Amino acid sequence: MPRTEFIATGFHVPERIVTNDDLSHMMDTSDEWISQRSGIKTRHWVSDGETGVSLARDAALHALSLAGMQPDALDCIVYCTCTPDHFEPGNGVFLQRELGLTDIPAIDVRNQCSGFIYGLSVADAWIRTGQYQRVLLVGAEVHSRGLDKTTRGRDTAVLFGDGAGAAILGPTDDPRRGVLSTHLYADGRHAEKLWVDGPGLAHDPYVSEEMLRQGKHRAVMEGKEVFKYASVLMPQSVATALEASGLTPGEIKLLVPHQANLRIIEMVQRAIGLRDDQVYANIHKYGNTTAASIPIALHEALCAGRLSRGDLLVLTAFGSGFTWASAAIRW
Ligand code: UT7
Fold first, then answer.
1. Ligand 1 centre from 36 Cα, in Å?
2. Of 146, 172, 198, which one is at a domain's C-terminal end?
3. 86/192 same-domain check
4. pTM (2 decimals)?
5. What CATH number is attached to the domain comprising 54?
6. Which residues line ligand 1 (CB under 6 A)?
7. Per-residue CA distances from 31 to 23, 25, 170, 331 (Å)
8. Burial (0-12, 13-18, 19+ Cβ within 10 Å), 44
9. pLDDT tens-digit profile, the chain (331 residues)
10. 126 shares a domain with 263
11. Active-site option among 44, 62, 288, 299
12. Is 288 among the catalytic positions?
């Protein structure tokens, strides 16, 4: 059975940069608070005319150009997002249309911050069984339009950013390379600890002025709980990934964790016992872009020369659901 290799990666973020000081003009917050608690300095927000799908398209075209491929070489799209442009259909079909494609399948993965690794796991299974040969895996999010940009929403509004990252995946027969494992987890007992309650069909009517007045359409979070579980379960998922392939932390060339909070990344690094050069962080520039954070960070790490052929790459993520995941990849 072949393994799955990354043929190319790419990313796209909106041009508009929003600084912590910009936010302090919208709500009662400060650069000092945001920097100390999260490590975030700036994030990118969409402008008029941009959508999640337009970000995803530009990230996909970036990856395709680096792969030297045209869109019609793709035979499947896996689109990971928790901020879809519409309730239905999913963003995958809009991206397919934007790329000028018809007929190939487009699946949407709704696993929030763990979305990219969940999507990778799905794509990897399809590629290994030979069902698809050239899979476009995208993580793309537009958070900014959904944030409560008043003091009421400051605990979440300062953390999230917009952006998209993409990878082109395909089979390799080289036994020394490719995706070694993916491990996926979920614990729905914590679903309401980071969620958007409505609009939703659990409500009748499913959207109402009262719902909007109460702010149910905004993401709300029990930040301390999310922090507590993330800092324990991400290292655990990495340990499982290493054990599954008989590897040790010292063999990791690069850990690319989901970028939710620099303090969480630091705790994960300490828990696994990694040096600074073994961990990639770019949250200071982009904030938390949920499903897009890993592919954006991975692309930047590759451009910075942090990963070479044969190196061990490990991914880990944690987020709303709760869901969490890890992947080990021999680059
Ligand atoms: O991908 C998963 C997504 N989410 C996460 O990973 C988030 C994980 N959690 C966190 O990162 C942290 O819990 C936060 C950064 C969100 C918050 O840090 P914290 O140390 O848990 O702060 P807190 O919620 O306990 O709030 C401390 C204080 C409160 O004021 P009082 O009650 O002590 O007077 C908050 O009202 O900070 C206040 N506060 C703020 N102040 C200035 C909350 N948000 C802000 C803000 N600016 N943006």
1. 10
2. 172
3. no
4. 0.97
5. 3.40.47.10
6. 29, 33-34, 37-38, 113, 154-155, 158, 194, 221, 223-224, 226-227, 230, 260-261, 264, 288, 319
7. 8, 11, 43, 37
8. buried
9. 999 999 999 999 999 999 999 999 999 999 999 999 999 999 999 999 999 999 999 999 999 999 999 999 999 999 999 999 999 999 999 999 999 999 999 999 999 999 999 999 999 999 999 999 999 999 999 999 999 999 999 999 999 999 999 999 999 999 889 999 999 999 999 999 999 999 999 999 999 999 999 999 999 999 999 999 999 999 999 999 999 999 999 999 999 999 999 999 999 999 999 999 999 999 999 999 999 999 999 999 999 999 999 999 999 999 999 999 999 999 9
10. no
11. 288
12. yes
